[in-house]
Amino acid sequence: MTHVRGRVWRHGKPVDDFVFSEISDCLAAEDTLVWCDIYDPDHEILTDLGDELALNAWAVEDALADAERTKAVVYKTHTFFTVYGVTVKSPAPEDMSESTLEIHRISGFVLPRGLITVRLSPHFDIDTVSRRFDELGGQEYGVGSLVHGLLDVIVDGHFDAVQALDDGIEGLEDDLFDGSARADLQRRTFQLRKDLVALRRVVLPMREVVTVIQHRRMDAKTAPELDPVYADLYDHVLRASEWTESLRDMVTTVFETNLSMQDARLNVVMKKLTGWAAIIAVPTAITGFYGQNVDYPGIDTVGGFVTSSAVIVLLVIVLFVMFRKRDWL
Length: 329
Known about the structure:
57% helix; cell membrane
């Protein structure tokens, strides 16, 4: 079922007269700014809206598609973009091998006097976007301020997700070197790698989206005041991208270190087993020699038994001391 909400600003001040059926009139009015958010849109409703507002048909189809990559496309009368918001599950799942991230797709149509957002996920907090509009207080600068507010919320979510993954990797490092074997360490490492790959797919393309919107804004000449805030937003996108790339190196290092430590522990076990096997071989060799069916010095005498036992004990002690000095036991 399609859910629609919206807000209208006139002369930079909010007014409470948004009506979805009259959105064309609002967008045509001077000194008016419109934000319309559509959740779970019906194909027919969005298609009719696209025809009414002369939106590109392919862009409308992309907004309704089940999967679409992060991108921004500039058309003659509007700009279309698709971005992905990321939220961290709270509280964290008890099974740390489960994903801690939720990814939500948001598509947008940027018109000269309005922004239309299309969402397929109900879990993205759109109220945060509305509050961010009011906090920025830049509605008098036009639709560019609305787009910036939305992208600012998206990028803040990326930072929260990167921070959560960073904390998770630090937890893996602590478990890796605390000396206790964790059966789920390998599984948690793989899950973090999966989350990081998914996050990287939505964070890195944001540079292209912000660049396109920043340099090809329709209101670039009428609202130059937004240039610094878009430059700051692009800087945040770069920082999130670089942080994501560094985390990929970190989780790869943790994975490889874990394998190296497993190999090292296996080598220690094999070394100790080999040392004990060498010690056990000495009495086995001596008793095996005296088990031959031939006469030998000291046979059937107490002195022969004591001598062979003393040789066994002496050689075992010598081997034990030698292996212990070499850290083989």
